[in-house]
Structures are given as structure tokens and as C-alpha cells.
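We include the pair:
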Amino acid sequence: MPGRPGRPESGSADSSADPVCVWMSRLRRYLYLVATLYLVSTPIGNLDDLSPRAAEVLRSVSRVLAEDTRRSRILVDRVGSEATLVSVREHNERARAEQIVAWLGGGEDLALVTDAGTPLVSDPGARVVDAVVAAGHDVTPIPGPSAPLAALVASGLPAERFTFLGFPARKGRDREADLTRIADSAETVVLFESPHRLVRLLEDLEPRCGPERRVCVAREITKLHEEFVRGTLSQALRYYRENAPRGEVTVVVAPADVANEPGADMVQARAEAAERLEAGERPSAIARAVSERHGLARNLAYRIVHDLQDSATDE
């Protein structure tokens, strides 16, 4: 008997095109009342990026929970799924969660999709997943396209450690906090922005990060007019002032480092941090003092102290 949709079975062949296998799988799930919510990643522009495993899941579930049922209908029809489409949006997610748990409790497997990319990443679904987990049902991710990861790996910027911030706040203290976090980050930062607010974002970042901070603006990833603009903040700002952006935009900002900290004496900062560690001071207090004395971003000072601690542990 075939394995459950989306679950690999050792030595099994791809049965996604066999309707008998699909119905046998459904029958097995209903008999044992074992239900799963699948989080299915969908294409961010090119429909050919949908994985065979994702297509199999969409064909086998009884319902597809979609942010926009009209857009998801195109994908569901493309893979030959007969699943019922159910709208799950930000404004109705809390109300839908109870019904979704009831469907799972009745033995139905469900798939949650977003308009494009991986569910829950700057999209609805978190409340549904929380409710399903709390009710004791399985939640299984079906990995696939992701705009933040695609932009990151193609940016030419450090990808070992990164922070994803979603969409930055539009105004007030929250926006100022987001901008400061990006400027001071010791890790690469990935974020979304709407095309008509991109220039303003770059303008706000330039004085905080410095005009030479490296950045990559990825636009329309996997689509016909895909574009990557790589360079400094000042170069990207100049380009988009002259070429109004369109479509989906993902911005990748390089981490704060020595090159982005003019006037900071890294050698002296590191030496002072080492002395304070040896004297037994608390790491947080050391980072705070080094940041203030040497004009370093707080996150960079913390990284210096952390690296010194790691070096001491390895010796």
C-alpha cells in the first residue's frame, strides 16, 4: 500500500500520476483517522517551480486553504486537483481555525498555501498552525520556493547568518526601530518592500548605514522581468530614482562590519574587550562599554565579545 502523500516511502516509485494510488491513500487516511495539515510552498512567479511532491499533496487533500482562492485555483487546476478551495485570509483566519481543526478531527488531510512562496512568511497561517498543533494534529511542511531565500543566495552578500524582517513599519517609532535594527545588524538583513515605497526605504537607510553599505534589490524573482541590482546603497538609490521599480521587491542589506564603521578602532576595541573578559566582567557590560567608547554599533560590539569568548573556549 502506498505511503501517505508528501511522506517519502523507501524504494517507492513516483505515483503522483496514478489516480488509484491517490484514492487508496485517501481511503487509508480515513480508515485510521490520521489527518495532517500540509504547508505547501508554491511558485513565486514560475509555475514550473512547483515540486512533484507539492503537486501530489494538492491532488490528495480534500481541501486547499488559500489566501486568494482565485489565484490558487490556477495552480490547483494545473495539477489536476479536485480539492475544495477555502479562503483563509488575515481577517478571517481566527474564525476559520476552529473549522479547520474540526475537518482534521474528522480525518481530512488539508493543504495550506499562500499566493506565492512559503506559507506564514509575511502571510496568514500562523493562527491556524497554532490551533492545529494545540489540537494534536500533524503539521508537515512541503518545502519549495521562497523569495527571501532566493534573493539572499543570489545577492552576493553573506548568507551564513541572516535576519528576515518582513515588511518594515511605515512610520513612527516602529519604523525607526526597524531602520536602526537594519543599520546595526551584525548579520545580513532580508526584507520585503512595496515598489512605490522602495526609494523612501533606501533614502532612510543611507544616512543610518552609510552610502557605501552593500545592498541587493531583487525584483520579480523567477518572472520574465527578473532583476537584481547589486551595489552600494547610494548606487541603488540613484538607480531607482531614475528607474521606477515595479512588481515584487525583496531587499538584502549587508551586515555592519569594519568597512561600515568609519573611525572605529577595531584593534583597540578588541583589546579592551579581552582585558575586561579576563578581569571577569559580564559580557553584556563589556559590549555596552566597548560600543560607547569606540563608536561601534551595539550588535558589532556584542559580536566582538562573543568571538573572544569562543576563542577562549577553543584554547
Notes: The chain has twelve helices and ten strands. The longest helix spans residues 298-314. The first strand starts at residue 36 and ends at 40.
